[in-house]
Structure formats: structure tokens, C-alpha cells
Design a protein that fits this description.
Length: 288
């Protein structure tokens, strides 16, 4: 089922940094508590957060891939242009942050084509990368890969190859691969193997929860020990400890979303300087 892709001659020492551009009220875990039809009632905080991220990246001479929700891009066109002008890749995160398996084929086709056209019009870039909401590409919706290819995308980064109650495909390879019968390459988020254990280390709540030294060591083990480029991801709301608290959420969701937000910016600044970062379309050019 899985066909691993040889690493090829990726740019030496470069790693793929990525930002999933969505506001705090758009995360999948909040969907039972915040009606997407009422998103416009929430003041946008994402622009301030993205501009802070641009400052962090500029200070470290790091560049990244920004996976945009079309909903956000449509409301902040100047921000999309500024991110592109700063040398970052513009890619698609879908229009409204709906999991792939919650859409019909026709709905998905319209979503990814609409978002691609919007982002290309705003940025002046060809949009070739896609990341599914909540890493929701599963065995049941591999048809999405063919739809992405037909729409003009050239890679997906929609799988986190770990076990998790909300996402993950533990059986998937840790590095770039194709699903048998599908042409589009999948570039997973980075994990590290310690003995028989496969552990997440490519961002998300784990990066906020665990001490920085552990994340740096795990990423270094992959980048230097295994000689493979990293894929790291995070969200703009993670640099925003003052974001409004959502009422009524369960304790697990509250912990996962809010843990160590105040420490994230400092960790990101260290990470941006400790490794060399570039857009995924450049780092994984041999794969794409």
C-alpha cells in the first residue's frame, strides 16, 4: 500500500517549516462549541499573530510554507500578499477547515479548487501544496489524492504517522511516500523512533507540552542522525497566550489547546535559529 520515495538530493541541511493559518476559534476541537456559521462574529486575531511569526522568521533568516484557510485569506488578502512577498510559500489548508472524510467527493473538489484559485490570485504564486484539516487523510478517503492531483496540487502533507485519538495513521511511513495507485506524494510530519516507540516531535501540542531540550534532541536525531529533512508545523494561535478562552469545553480539550501557550514564542525563536528552515516546495523538490 505504501511506496516510500527515495530521499534524493534535498538541499543540504534544510528542513521544512510550516504554519497552518487558522484562527483560534477555527480549530477542529472547538467545532462542537463554536458554530462555523458564526465565525464572523469573532474578532480576528490571526493577522497580529502571523505578523509576529514573520518577525521571528526574519530574525532567524528562516522561511516557511504557510498553509492557508481560504476563509482567512479571503478576509485578509493583504496579509497573504505580505507573506508571499517575504519569500514564503503559499499553500492550501482548505477553505473552512472541514475534515476530508466529512466531505463528499464533489464538496472536496469544490473546496480545494476554490481555495487554490483564491490563494493564487492573491499571492501571484502557483499553489502546489495541500494539508488536510486535522491531518484527516485516511484509508477511507484516498480518493482525495486523485482530486488534488487533478486540481493541480503536487504534494500533500496531510498525515501525522502516529497514534492519536483525533488523527494519525500509525502504519504510514515516517518519510515521504506514495499510496499505491496514487501519484501524489505525501510528506508526513516528523516523528522520531526510540526503540519500538514512534514519538511525535514535529510540532503541535507536544512541542508546547514537552521541554525544549527534548524537542531539539528528537529533531536533531532525525535531521542529523538519520540525515532526513524535518517537517515541523504549528498554528498562529499558539503564539497568542492572550486569546479568548472558549467556554464550556471539556478538560482534555482545554489542556491540549492552552497548555504552555505563554512559552511557545520563546521556543519558536530558539527552534527557528537552531535548525535551517525553508519552504516545503524547496526542501522536498526531489520528491515533488
Amino acid at each position: 500500500m505504501f511506496v516510500e520515495i527515495p530521499a534524493g538530493d534535498s538541499p543540504a541541511g534544510l528542513n521544512g517549516m510550516s504554519v497552518d493559518v487558522e484562527d483560534y476559534f477555527q480549530v477542529s476541537a472547538f467545532r462542537p462549541f463554536i458554530d462555523p456559521a458564526r465565525w464572523d462574529e469573532h474578532p480576528l486575531r490571526v493577522e497580529r499573530n502571523v505578523r509576529l511569526i514573520l518577525e521571528v522568521f526574519a530574525a532567524a533568516r528562516a522561511r516557511a510554507t504557510f498553509f492557508w484557510l481560504g476563509w482567512v485569506a479571503e478576509r485578509l488578502p493583504g496579509l497573504v500578499r505580505d507573506v508571499a512577498a517575504a519569500g514564503h510559500e503559499i499553500a492550501s489548508h482548505g477553505y473552512r477547515h472541514v475534515r476530508v472524510h466529512e466531505q463528499s467527493v464533489a464538496e472536496f473538489r469544490d473546496d480545494v479548487r476554490r481555495t487554490k484559485a483564491l490563494l493564487e490570485d492573491l499571492s501571484g504564486q502557483a499553489v502546489i501544496g495541500y494539508r488536510a484539516a486535522s491531518f484527516s487523510l485516511t484509508d477511507e478517503c484516498l480518493w482525495a489524492l486523485d482530486e488534488l492531483g487533478e486540481a493541480g496540487y503536487r504534494y500533500s502533507s496531510s498525515i501525522n504517522p502516529v497514534r492519536h485519538d483525533h488523527y494519525g495513521m500509525r502504519a504510514a511511513p515516517r518519510f515521504a511516500f506514495r499510496f499505491g495507485g496514487h501519484a501524489l506524494p505525501e510528506i508526513p510530519v516528523t516523528t522520531v523512533e526510540l526503540g519500538s516507540m514512534r514519538l511525535p516531535c514535529g510540532g503541535g501540542g507536544y512541542f508546547r507540552l514537552l521541554p525544549y531540550w527534548w524537542s531539539r534532541a528528537a529533531l536533531g536525531r532525525v535531521a542529523r542522525g538519520e540525515g532526513r529533512p524535518l517537517v515541523f508545523y504549528f498554528h498562529p494561535w499558539e503564539v497568542d497566550p492572550e486569546q479568548p478562552r472558549v467556554a464550556g469545553i471539556d478538560l482534555r480539550t482545554r489542556f491540549r489547546h492552552y497548555v504552555n501557550l505563554a512559552a511557545f514564542e520563546g521556543k519558536l525563536r530558539r527552534l527557528s535559529g537552531d535548525f535551517r528552515w525553508a519552504p516545503m516546495r524547496e526542501v522536498f523538490a526531489p520528491v515533488i
